[in-house]
Design brief:
The protein is of the alpha/beta class. It has 16 helices and 20 strands. The strands form six sheets. The chain has a seven-stranded mixed beta sheet, with helices on both faces. A five-stranded parallel beta sheet has the order 7-6-8-11-12, sandwiched between helices. It has a two-stranded antiparallel sheet with strand order 1-2. It starts with a helix and ends in a 9-residue tail after the last strand.
Length: 422
C-alpha cells in the first residue's frame, strides 16, 4: 500500500516532457486551449460539427438536453454505430485491414473491413434466427479474439444490447451479470489461452447458466472443435454463421437507444451496470480517439487491454473501426512466449500508437533494456497509459526506451472510467 509520504514524494516530480516538434506540427489538434474554450462556450455547435462527420439515417432535432440527473445527446437522431464502424468504409477501404489478431503461438489472422462486414452480418443473421430482437440482452464471455468483437458488433447491428464479461471472472460473477440484465443469450468460447495454457471458459459458463433462468440459448465458439461437447440449448458459433447471408441491414436506432451494458469492476462496492447508447457514445469515442490519440489515416494502433473492459470496448472495437483504423489485438501477455515479443510486434507491424497500462511497462522494465535494443521502434509516435497511476520510474523508462527520449515519440498519461466510456 502506498503511504502518505510516498505520495507526497511522487507529487514533487517537476520534470516536463515536451512532444517533438514534428509531432506537434502534424497533430490533429493544434490548439487545445481554443478547442476546450469552443466546447464550453459553444457546446451545441461544437458537438454538432463533430457529429456531422459521421453518417446518420436521419438528423437530430437538438444536440443535447440537460435535465439533471439525465443528459441526452442528439435527440431523435437515427443511427447505428455499426454503420459508421463498417458500412461507411466499404466504398473506399473495403480491402483495408480492420483487425489484425495475433496469437501467443505466433499465428495471426487479418480481417479487412469488407470481410469483417460480412462476418458481422452473418452472425447478426444467426442471432435473428434464434429469436434475438432489438432490445434483447446478450452476455458475451469470450477470450480476446476476433469472434468476441464480431459478437459485440453483431448484437449492435440488430439493436440487441451486449454485455461483455471479462473472461477471467468466476462462475458467480458471470451468473450475477447474466441475471442482473435478464439476458436472453450467452455467447462464450470453450477455452481461452494464456501463457500457453488453456482456461476452461465453457466449464465456468456451464456452471453459471444453471442459475440463469432467462437464458434461452448458449452459443459456443469451439476452438477445440469436436472435442468440446455441446449440451442442451447450446449452439456452435461457426455453424450458426455458416449458411447465413452476408448482408444484414443495420437496425435503425434512436440516438438514445441502448448499445451496451458494462459492469464496473466492483473494487468500491457491488458492480454497477453502466449503460451506453448508440449516438452519444459513437460521437464521443470517435472524437476522442482521432483527437487525443492523434490517429492518422494509415496508422497501426495497438491496445493491450481486453474487450471485457471499457477500454477494450472503446479502443479495440468501436473507435478504431469508426475512424477506419487498422487495429492490432493480441491474446495473452506482452512478455510471452519471449520477453521481447512486445518490441518485435512494434517493429514487425510498424505500430504507430499504443495504449497500455503502467503495470505492463513495469513488467517490461524488469527484463532490462537489452530486449528493446534488438528492434527498430521508431514507428511509435505515441505511447498512452491509463488504468492506474503512471509512476515516474516507469514513465521515464518508457520515454527513454519506447520514445527514444523524445527523438521520435511521446508518452501521454491519461485516465478514464466505465461511466464515461473512455
Amino acid at each position: 500500500m502506498v503511504q502518505k509520504g510516498q505520495i507526497d514524494h511522487l507529487l514533487q516530480e517537476s520534470a516536463i516532457i515536451v512532444p517533438p516538434d514534428n509531432l506537434k506540427q502534424a497533430a490533429n489538434l493544434q490548439n487545445y486551449e481554443k478547442e476546450y474554450a469552443d466546447s464550453i462556450n459553444n457546446t451545441e455547435g461544437f458537438w454538432e460539427n463533430i457529429a456531422k462527420e459521421l453518417s446518420w439515417f436521419s438528423p437530430w432535432e437538438s444536440v443535447y438536453e440537460n435535465t439533471y440527473p439525465t443528459f441526452k445527446w442528439f435527440l431523435n437522431g437515427k443511427c447505428n454505430i455499426t454503420y459508421n464502424a463498417l458500412d461507411r468504409h466499404l466504398e473506399h477501404n473495403k480491402n483495408k485491414v480492420a483487425f489484425l489478431w495475433l496469437a501467443e503461438d505466433g499465428s495471426e489472422r487479418s480481417f479487412t473491413y469488407g470481410r469483417l462486414y460480412s462476418l458481422v452480418n452473418k452472425f447478426a443473421n444467426g442471432l435473428k434466427q434464434i429469436g434475438v430482437q432489438k432490445g434483447d440482452k446478450v452476455v458475451i464471455y469470450m477470450p480476446l479474439t476476433p469472434e468476441g468483437a464480431i459478437a459485440m458488433l453483431a448484437c449492435a447491428r440488430i439493436g440487441a444490447v451486449h454485455s461483455v464479461v471479462y473472461a477471467g471472472f468466476s462462475v458467480g460473477a458471470l451468473a450475477d451479470r447474466i441475471n442482473d440484465i435478464d439476458a436472453k443469450v450467452l455467447i462464450t468460447g470453450d477455452i481461452g489461452i494464456r501463457r500457453g495454457g488453456h482456461i476452461d471458459l465453457k466449464a465456468i459458463a456451464d456452471e453459471a447458466i444453471k442459475s440463469c433462468p432467462t437464458l434461452t440459448n448458449t452459443i459456443v465458439w469451439r476452438r477445440l472443435g469436436e472435442k468440446t461437447t455441446l449440451k442442451s440449448k447450446q449452439l456452435d458459433f461457426d455453424e450458426l454463421m455458416n449458411n447465413q447471408s452476408p448482408h444484414c441491414d443495420a437496425e435503425i436506432m434512436d440516438s438514445e437507444d441502448p448499445l451496451y451494458v458494462l459492469y464496473t469492476s466492483g473494487t468500491t462496492g457491488k458492480p454497477k451496470g453502466i449503460l451506453h447508447v448508440h449516438g452519444g457514445y459513437m460521437v464521443g469515442t470517435y472524437y476522442h480517439f482521432k483527437t487525443f490519440w492523434d490517429i492518422k489515416e494509415n496508422d497501426v494502433f495497438w491496445c493491450t487491454s481486453d474487450i471485457g473492459w471499457v477500454v477494450g470496448h472503446s479502443y479495440i472495437v468501436y473507435a478504431p473501426l469508426i475512424t477506419g483504423t487498422t487495429t492490432i489485438f493480441r491474446e495473452g501477455t506482452i512478455d510471452y512466449p519471449e520477453p521481447d515479443i512486445f518490441y518485435n510486434i512494434i517493429e514487425k507491424y510498424g505500430v504507430n500508437v499504443i495504449f497500455t497500462a503502467p503495470t505492463a511497462l513495469r513488467m517490461l522494465m524488469r527484463y532490462g533494456d537489452k530486449n528493446s535494443k534488438k528492434y527498430d521502434l521508431t514507428s511509435l509516435r505515441y505511447l498512452t497509459c491509463a488504468g492506474e497511476p503512471l509512476n515516474p520510474e516507469a514513465l521515464k523508462w518508457a520515454y527513454k526506451i519506447l520514445c527514444g527520449n523524445g527523438e521520435w515519440g511521446h508518452i501521454v498519461d491519461n485516465w478514464w472510467q466505465t461511466e464515461t466510456g473512455a
